[in-house]
User: Fold these one by one.
Assistant:
Number 1:
Amino acid sequence: MTTLLPDAVAAYFAAKNKQDIDAMLATFAPDASVRDEGQDMRGAEQIRTWMEKTTAKYRVSVEIRETQFDGNQLNVVGLVSGNFPGSPAILRYVFTLRDGAIVHLEIGA
């Protein structure tokens, strides 16, 4: 079964699986924010730094298992494989979208 995702989210996961920082960052609005591992990143510079550090450290790929729309939010459950204890693991990604771009992403277990 094919999962239809908004373009920005589909492009984010495609870029993430290729570890392409520029392509991942391009899916975010300039004023976007991210919450991951208990930390908040705001704006393109902080989000890029987070992407560079986590990509180099974990080298993850994500296989989407489930999606659910809730208003302007998209909840994605993914099987995440990479260089971390307990890999693979199920993680939840909550995207908030505006005008075709990601304005907020929260990642958690």
Number 2:
Amino acid sequence: MPAPWLKAVQTGVELTVLVQPRASRTKVVGEHDGQLKIQLAAPPVDGEANAALVEFIAKTLGVPRRQVTLVAGDTSRRKRLRVEGVDAAAAEAVISGGP
């Protein structure tokens, strides 16, 4: 059964994310209410948290930053990201299997 926070789209995957800014360090916490919860060290000021989230997802999935797009939730803690060129099964394995 696929993760509820992961959706395969034609060009890659979409991730539904719940962000907790100003954490002690940036990391994936796990699933929370059907969303992938990620703690970010960046503050939610002037788009810093969004930039940090895009950078973290790109690094975690091993894709260039230009392949990660914030689709929805620019000013919300609940966000939707599209990652181009990534297989859904591979994305779930990398994110869920990470420490």
